[in-house]
Design brief:
Elements: E1 5-11, E2 14-22, E3 47-48, E4 53-54, E5 62-67, E6 70-74, H1 76-86, E7 90-98, E8 107-115, H2 120-133, E9 135-143, E10 146-155, E11 158-164, H3 187-200, H4 212-226, H5 241-281
């Protein structure tokens, strides 16, 4: 498992060296866009619509659109300064709360926390303390220049960090249109609905749920491969501006050489004809 980040967990005066690992992975099957005629992958270029020219990474800067069509440009130096100022390789636990107090809407992404060098004993201590107290830690961490709120809890004998949204990142339900107000519900219909819920209630077993579409897509791809429907596509030769100019210059030089050779070849023949003419007159 690839280590994404190294740092420490800190709560009070306790400091625990840790390593961060992604706890989940995207299993979606990636499909590329191809040209219908030849099945060559489509390429996209970075182009400035105002200047009507392709731009390189060196010509790109970052900016914030504060009003429609108006931008504040932030230099790489300014962004680096801000990053260095706020980047702290520490999971700083601020408070301890009960897991039930946090609604799932706040959760974002999960990471496994493994003990770092000389951190096994302190790691085990925090894990046991969380289990015995039934609490989870509320922490702050900076990952890839983004400060995030997180919870630290125990999952299958491992400390897990879940990044969660800040309150202002969760949209208000008041913005959802056409939400029904408190209405009178028929008691018979309500009893029937509760009965159905009771009949379908069970213990959560994650292994019994699968992504049927992904499996069907994977089977369809394998089926086509087995029928030899795959098509090899020759990559188009990449020719940058420098190569193109060199090719054009070489073509011009070659054309000049051919013209010189043709003139040289024609010159003797003309002289010979003149000599023959002179001899006849003589």
């Amino acid at each position: 498992m690839h280590t994404m980040w190294k740092g420490s967990i800190r709560f009070g005066l306790v400091n625990i060296p840790i390593k961060l690992f992604s706890a989940t992975e995207d299993k979606d099957i990636k499909l590329r866009q191809l040209h219908r005629n030849c099945h060559t992958p489509i390429q996209y270029e970075k182009k400035c619509p105002h200047c009507d020219e392709t731009v390189s990474n060196d010509d790109i800067v970052k900016g914030y659109e504060y009003v429609k069509g108006k931008f504040i440009v932030l230099t790489d130096e300014e962004l680096k300064e801000l990053k260095d100022e706020h980047e702290d390789k520490t999971v700083e636990i601020k408070d301890f709360v009960s897991l039930e107090e946090i609604d799932p809407i706040y959760y974002h992404r999960s990471y496994y926390l493994g003990p770092g060098e000389n951190g096994i004993k302190a790691y085990a201590l925090l894990r046991e303390a969380l289990l015995k107290s039934g609490k989870i830690g509320i922490a702050e961490i900076t990952i890839r220049s983004k400060q995030q709120l997180a919870v630290v809890r125990v999952y299958n004998n491992c400390l897990v960090m879940e990044t969660i949204h800040y309150p202002d990142e969760v949209r208000s339900v008041e913005n959802v249109p056409s939400l029904p107000e408190q209405t009178t519900i028929d008691e018979k219909e309500l009893s029937t609905a509760i009965m159905l819920i009771d009949q379908l209630s069970t213990t959560f077993e994650p292994d019994k749920y699968t992504d049927d579409y992904r499996e069907a897509l994977k089977n369809k791809i394998e089926e086509k491969i087995n029928r030899n429907e795959g098509k090899a596509v020759e990559e188009a030769p990449r020719q940058n501006v420098v190569d193109l100019m060199s090719a054009l210059q070489a073509s011009i030089e070659r054309t000049k050489k051919k013209e010189k050779a043709a003139k040289k070849e024609n010159a003797p023949k003309t002289t010979e004809k003149k000599k023959k003419t002179v001899r006849k007159k003589a």
